[in-house]
Amino acid sequence: MKKSTQLLEHISALMDGELADADRELALAALTGDEGRAAWHAYHLIGDQLRAAADREEGAGAALAARLRLRRAVAAEVGSAPPFEDDGATPAATIP
């Protein structure tokens, strides 16, 4: 494995809290160079995007759950389930 690839893997593991103590000093030293700082920044951006995607998925699930609760409440009020109204939205279309 190339040394720079190994250092990038160490930086990634450091960010994830999975780096062995023996490799920590090497990873921290790599952060003083341009390539190490760029990798640290890129890995943070990737993590931010992954967390944002998870938040969007969670939000879509909450919206669906709210619609189902409302439908159940209406059904209980009128004594039967109201017909399903297709608003044309698909799961993929509801996630921005």
From TrEMBL:
Pfam families per the UniProt record, alphabetical: RseA_N
Sequence ranges assigned to domain Anti sigma-E protein RseA N-terminal in this UniProt record: 9-68
Superkingdom of the source species: Bacteria
Molecular function terms, GO-annotated: sigma factor antagonist activity
Protein name: Sigma-E factor negative regulatory protein RseA
